[in-house]
């Protein structure tokens, strides 16, 4: 037997993936190689020489499949069978066999004999497997091959064979299942920041199933690195000493098990030196509400290396530790903010290496809801003496300090249960305080504000306390409101009276009445005072302890009315025995002190009636006046009766009885008034009489004075009434132009009814629209004219009870006439009639009650009128909009450097507000058309539709208005004198100029001029044209304006359609809404997205260098100078010219949606510019723009921007805006 062959490598050899390996085998005979069945990347060659056989095996670019056993053996070696050792013995007691799921496994029980009948036996559990020649077999050179799933459950296997009657067993093999699944791969730390010269350590850890062989590989910015092997922990550690700036980048660890591969990345940022950089801008004021349920977090965004140490200061001193306050270097977090938390805070960041400091400060304002202090210390009921002048006071404290304290009152009749124990929640009849309101007249209200103490004190001075009532003071700020209800009780104190009079008579039914307020006094009782003589003089109120009191024998009657309790001592048929001093005893409820009110009873004696003076006979002239006096005396007071000739005298024409019938007066004495007059005086004790004879002298005149006076009065009254009727009928009614120049510009569209009758029929519901003047705080004027003005104001509670809303208030100037007052009142009624719409300046309320000026409260639009706004944006206009956003944030960006969603929204919003685009101009036009469509549906004609009467509100919403009262038409150059009126001729239709006909169709003409203003960015119409009779004539002949600088063909054709001669040929506002809506949708569909390597460009609608394309037009036009971007226009006379063919080149985008849009344009009721059989190419032709497919990030930004830009239009029921797919 020759010596066995020799290899240059023995045992186990480890090599990295992609490496090469060379194995050399030398022996005494021909050699052959046995390789693993999975190995394919090898080649063999002969290296024989020097008398030995030699063969070489080379492995190239090794993979996991090359793993296995490589054997070198003799070829064609004669084998001698040895029946005693059928299996090749092993050097070890047992070997480990690794198996993989889904693969065949070879149990290396090689044999020394061929063609043995070998079976495979397993233990734990015991099982015997026979080779079937298909899935399992035994080969003497390799061993027993079997599918892995047949023995994966076994612990130990061995081969057995039987030769003769003897059984032989191979060595034992331990079965170990080798897995491949990698559950997770982690690379720590994920983000590393170092400075130059420091050490980098990255650890890559794989979590796998059992018996998985892992191979780790490293890359840096895509370049492979040589890795280190650590088979024990299945981890790999990368260490880089003395890092430099070049080491910055992404490091990736890849773990491979042959059948599965996972990667993890980390980012290293290497700084040249330590630093601290706090991000700007820094918000210097933070505003929060007290005891907010959410935690208040003030972020500190900074970049620093290394992580700095920090400290927080409050008002210059170190911030104290508090369980509610969490101090961090990147934020200050306060839970349950309290008022004491307000102050100036400073964050100090300190670099641990350089000791450099960076400071930033901010002020924390804590909004505190107002609280009325008196609610905690004062009683709910205030008792005030009748006739006094008390002061009610409310002190409110909060931040911001409440601007005012509002007072209201409610009478007891409105809330009967007010002074009982029933809660006041059901009482809702509160009214505002005025100088003349309520039972108790108000003197004045004094308010004092102390901002340092964050409080306001309001004092309500009552001029005279007369009746019980409820008062309520209310204080509010931006956080909340508080109120206090005061039960205002008026008492007359203690009062003793005597009935039926203060000087009673014997036999009268006398009653001594004692009245007291039950809220103050109780235990009322009557007594007779025994120890005071008649001659002693005492005060009416005495302490009861100084008096000797005896209970009276007469009965008492107790009654109660409201809060007053009355106790009466009844003395029927009073006699001299009842005379004396009486005391009413009362007890103070709080002090328990007893007080007596004294009243002396003295009776007058009875005396028969008698006439003191005797009447004497009288002579009187006819038509004169005479008086007869009957002076009587007696106890009780006598009654007097007059008779004439024994007939009772009664009052009538010319007969007057006065002074309790003591005096008889006869006016315009007649002859029949002569006779015997008797005065009879009677009482319970007797009667007395006195007589006089009246004689008349002279003759009676024929003229009856009594008839002349009333008849003359009636005649004079009728004369003045007829005079007033003729004056009113003779007055000239104001025509439509005068009415416009004066006040109203929106009227009701009624065919025959005059304007004043229309307005009279409209009603004003004060319960719905009236708003208290006290809740209005007038500010700066927004417009001023000859008769009226519009001012900015703050309205408290006009929309919500606790909010303050900025509004616009229309009001007359001082000295306005009644006709001007009626005009403003008519405008108020028209606004109520019109109703609410998004694109109309809506009515919010009015102040019409006496005691103050008439005020009409409407919505406030902060951007002012559209004309001025467009002029201010001329330098910022571009037909397209570009938004630049970094396409990919560097992966090393720290948490402080990433752009959050709110920051992205801020970028988009700021970009949206900086520039004016073609989309904005079409949007303004569309919204005005929507508003006019609404007005026309309400039978309203505007009559002055122009950019100066369009206001721009928030979110690019435009609103139609007419502040006619605030514009002085005699100073406004847009209004031209015609007759006695000034009219906006440039905006008026020919039928309005010549025939004074105002219709919805004339408003359409004005809308066309408004379009010209919009697409010229606020230029004055008909630039350079003299507005005179020639202008009006040529306008009627068909001469029109040239296209504005920024209008497309579609827009200009829309203007020409609005300027058609026949009003019925002009489009309706409903058609204009549909057409402009299609243009707006088409403009939104021109959004194109281009992805570059580092940025995303969003471009809308048109390029700046685009040319205009249109179909041929032939319209006479005014010759004018180019529209200059200045407020000064040179006025020159005009001439006619032909419009040259302009050219537009639109940025096109092809999609199914755009085709649908084109189809809808061709089938809609209004087709601007296509009234004839025109076959020109539509403005949005079927061209395609070929661009790279946008990424998901870019598409998100486009969709976000489009939604943000047009969300207001969606509320107006426009079609959904879609992004074209390129």
From TrEMBL:
Membrane topology field: Single-pass type I membrane protein
Catalytic activity line of the entry: L-tyrosyl-[protein] + ATP = O-phospho-L-tyrosyl-[protein] + ADP + H(+)
PANTHER family per UniProt: TYROSINE-PROTEIN KINASE RECEPTOR, VASCULAR ENDOTHELIAL GROWTH FACTOR RECEPTOR 2
Listed GO MF terms: ATP binding; growth factor binding; metal ion binding; vascular endothelial growth factor receptor activity
Coarse class of the protein's main subcellular location: membrane
E.C. designation(s): 2.7.10.1
Family per record: Belongs to the protein kinase superfamily. Tyr protein kinase family. CSF-1/PDGF receptor subfamily.
Any one GO BP annotation for this protein: positive regulation of angiogenesis
Gene3D superfamilies linked to this entry: Immunoglobulins, Phosphorylase Kinase, domain 1, Transferase(Phosphotransferase) domain 1
InterPro entries from the UniProt entry: Ig-like_dom, Ig-like_dom_sf, Ig-like_fold, Ig_I-set, Ig_sub, Ig_sub2, Kinase-like_dom_sf, Prot_kinase_dom
Protein's organism: Mastacembelus armatus (zig-zag eel)
Keywords linked to the UniProt accession: Angiogenesis, ATP-binding, Cell membrane, Cytoplasm, Developmental protein, Differentiation, Disulfide bond, Endosome, Glycoprotein, Immunoglobulin domain, Kinase, Magnesium, Membrane, Metal-binding, Nucleotide-binding, Nucleus, Phosphoprotein, Receptor, Repeat, Signal, Transferase, Transmembrane, Transmembrane helix, Tyrosine-protein kinase
Protein residues bound to ATP: 783-790, 810, 948
Binding site residues for Mg(2+): 949, 962
Residues in Protein kinase domain copies: 776-1078
Enzyme kind, highest EC tier: transferase
Statement: the UniProt record of this protein carries the keyword Disulfide bond: yes
One of the record's GO cellular component terms: receptor complex
Protein name: receptor protein-tyrosine kinase
Location of the active site: 944 (proton acceptor)
Domain Ig-like: 171-265, 370-486, 494-595, 609-695
Localization per Swiss-Prot or TrEMBL: Cell membrane; Cytoplasm; Endosome; Membrane
């Amino acid at each position: 037997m020759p010596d066995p062959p020799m290899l240059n490598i023995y045992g186990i050899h480890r090599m990295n993936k992609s490496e090469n390996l060379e194995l050399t085998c030398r022996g005494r005979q021909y050699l052959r190689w046995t390789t693993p069945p999975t190995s394919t990347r090898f080649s063999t060659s002969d290296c024989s020489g020097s008398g030995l056989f030699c063969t070489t095996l080379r492995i190239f670019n090794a993979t996991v499949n090359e793993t296995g056993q490589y054997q070198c053996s003799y070829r064609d070696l004669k084998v001698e069978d040895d029946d005693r050792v059928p299996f090749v013995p092993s050097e070890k007691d047992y070997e480990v066999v690794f198996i993989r799921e889904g693969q065949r496994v070879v149990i290396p029980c090689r044999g020394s004999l061929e063609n043995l009948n070998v079976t495979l036996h397993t233990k734990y559990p015991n099982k015997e497997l026979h080779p079937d020649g298909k899935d399992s077999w035994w080969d003497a050179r390799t061993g027993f091959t079997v599918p892995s799933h047949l023995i994966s459950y076994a612990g130990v296997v061995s081969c057995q064979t039987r030769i003769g009657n003897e059984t032989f067993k191979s060595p034992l093999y331990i079965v170990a299942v080798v897995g491949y699944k990698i559950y997770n791969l982690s690379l720590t730390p994920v983000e590393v920041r170092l400075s130059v010269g420091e050490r980098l350590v990255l650890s890559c850890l794989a979590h796998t199933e059992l018996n998985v062989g892992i191979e780790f590989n490293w890359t840096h910015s895509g370049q492979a690195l040589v890795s280190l092997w650590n088979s024990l922990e299945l981890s790999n550690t990368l260490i880089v000493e003395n890092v430099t700036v070049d080491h910055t980048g992404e490091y990736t660890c890849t773990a491979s098990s042959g059948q599965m591969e996972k990667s993890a990345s980390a980012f290293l940022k290497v700084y040249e030196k330590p630093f601290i950089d706090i991000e700007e801008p820094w918000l210097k004021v933070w505003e929060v509400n007290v005891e907010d349920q959410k935690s208040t977090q003030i972020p500190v965004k900074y970049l620093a290396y290394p992580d700095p140490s920090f400290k927080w200061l409050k008002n210059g001193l170190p911030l104290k530790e508090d369980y509610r306050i969490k101090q961090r270097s990147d934020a200050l977090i306060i839970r349950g903010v309290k008022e004491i938390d307000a102050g100036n805070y400073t964050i100090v960041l300190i670099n641990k290496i350089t000791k450099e400091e960076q400071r930033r400060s901010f002020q924390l304002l804590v909004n505190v809801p107002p609280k009325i202090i008196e609610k905690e210390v004062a009683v709910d009921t205030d008792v005030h003496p009748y006739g006094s002048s008390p002061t009610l006071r409310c002190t409110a404290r909060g931040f911001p300090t409440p601007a005012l304290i509002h007072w209201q009152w409610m009478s007891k009749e409105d809330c009967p249960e007010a002074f009982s124990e029933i809660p006041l929640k059901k009482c809702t009849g509160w009214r505002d305080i005025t100088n003349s309101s309520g039972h108790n007249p108000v003197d004045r209200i004094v308010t004092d504000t102390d901002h340092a103490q964050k409080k306001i004190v309001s004092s309500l001075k009552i001029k005279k306390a007369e009746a019980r009532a409820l008062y309520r003071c209310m204080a509010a700020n931006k956080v909340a409101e508080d109120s206090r209800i005061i039960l205002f009780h008026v008492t007359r104190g203690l009062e003793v009276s005597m009935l039926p009079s203060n000087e009673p008579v014997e036999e009268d039914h006398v009653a001594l009445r004692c009245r007291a307020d039950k809220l103050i006094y109780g235990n009322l009782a009557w007594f007779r005072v025994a120890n005071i003589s008649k001659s002693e003089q005492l005060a009416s109120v005495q302490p009861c302890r100084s008096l000797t009191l005896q209970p009276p024998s007469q009965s008492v009657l107790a009654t109660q009315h409201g809060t007053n309790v009355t106790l009466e001592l009844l003395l029927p048929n009073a006699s001299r025995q009842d005379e004396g001093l009486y005391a009413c005893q009362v007890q103070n409820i709080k002090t328990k002190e007893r007080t007596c009110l004294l009243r002396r009873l003295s009776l007058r004696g009875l005396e028969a009636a008698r006439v003191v003076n005797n009447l004497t006979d009288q002579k009187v002239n006819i038509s004169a006046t005479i008086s007869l006096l009957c002076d009587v005396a007696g106890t009780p007071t006598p009654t007097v009766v007059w008779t004439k000739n024994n007939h009772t005298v009664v009052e009538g024409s010319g007969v007057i009885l006065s002074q309790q019938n003591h005096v008889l007066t006869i006016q315009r004495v007649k002859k029949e008034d002569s006779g015997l007059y008797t005065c009879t005086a009677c009482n319970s004790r007797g009667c007395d009489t006195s007589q006089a004879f009246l004689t008349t002298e002279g003759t009676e005149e024929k003229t009856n004075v009594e008839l002349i006076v009333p008849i003359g009065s009636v005649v004079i009254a009728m004369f003045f009434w007829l005079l007033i009727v003729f004056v009113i009928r003779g007055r000239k009614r104001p025509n439509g132009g005068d009415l416009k120049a004066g006040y109203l510009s929106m009227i009701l569209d009624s065919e025959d009814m005059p304007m004043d009758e229309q307005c009279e029929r409209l009603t004003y519901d004060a319960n719905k629209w009236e708003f208290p003047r006290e809740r209005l705080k007038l500010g700066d004027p927004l417009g001023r004219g000859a008769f009226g003005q519009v001012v900015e104001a703050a309205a408290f509670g006009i929309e919500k009870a606790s909010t303050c809303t900025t509004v616009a208030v229309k009001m007359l100037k001082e000295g306005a006439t009644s006709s001007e007052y009626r005009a403003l009142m008519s405008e108020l009624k028209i606004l109520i009639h019109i109703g609410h719409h998004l694109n109309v300046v809506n009515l919010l309320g009015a102040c019409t009650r006496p005691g103050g000026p008439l005020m009409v409260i409407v919505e406030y639009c902060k951007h002012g009128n559209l004309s001025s706004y467009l002029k201010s944006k001329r330098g910022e206009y571009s037909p397209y909009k570009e938004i630049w956003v970094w396409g990919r944030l560097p992966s090393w960006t720290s948490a402080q450097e990433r752009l959050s969603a709110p920051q992205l929204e801020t970028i988009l919003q700021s970009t949206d507000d900086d520039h004016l685009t073609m989309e904005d101009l079409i949007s303004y036009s569309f919204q005005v058309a929507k508003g006019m469509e609404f007005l026309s549906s309400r039978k309203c004609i505007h009559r002055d539709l122009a950019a100066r009467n369009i206001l721009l509100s928030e979110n690019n919403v435009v609103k139609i208005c007419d502040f006619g009262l605030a514009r002085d038409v005699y100073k406004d150059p847009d209004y031209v004198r015609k007759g006695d009126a000034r009219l906006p001729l440039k905006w008026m239709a020919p039928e309005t100029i010549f025939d004074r006909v105002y219709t919805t169709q004339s408003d359409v003409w004005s809308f066309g001029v408004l379009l010209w203003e919009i697409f010229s960015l606020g230029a004055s119409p008909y630039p350079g044209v003299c507005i005179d009779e020639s202008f009006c004539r040529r306008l009627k002949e068909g001469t029109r304006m040239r296209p504005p600088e920024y209008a497309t063909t579609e827009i200009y054709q829309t203007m020409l359609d609005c300027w058609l001669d026949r009003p019925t040929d002009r489009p309706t506002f409903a058609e204009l809404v549909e057409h402009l809506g299609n243009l707006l949708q088409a403009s939104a569909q021109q959004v194109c997205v281009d992805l570059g390597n580092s940025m995303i460009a969003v471009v809308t609608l048109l390029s700046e260098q685009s040319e205009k394309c249109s179909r041929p037009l032939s319209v006479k036009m005014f010759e004018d100078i180019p529209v200059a971007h200045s407020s000064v226009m040179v006025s020159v006379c005009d001439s006619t010219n032909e419009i040259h063919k302009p050219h537009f080149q639109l940025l096109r985008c092809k999609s199914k949606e755009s085709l649908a849009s084109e189809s809808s344009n061709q089938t809609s009721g209004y087709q601007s510019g296509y009234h004839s059989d025109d076959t020109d190419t539509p403005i949005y032709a079927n061209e395609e723009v070929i661009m790279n497919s946008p990424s998901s990030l870019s598409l998100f930004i486009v969709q976000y921007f489009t939604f943000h830009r047009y969300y207001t239009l969606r509320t107006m029921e426009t079609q959904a805006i879609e992004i074209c797919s390129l």
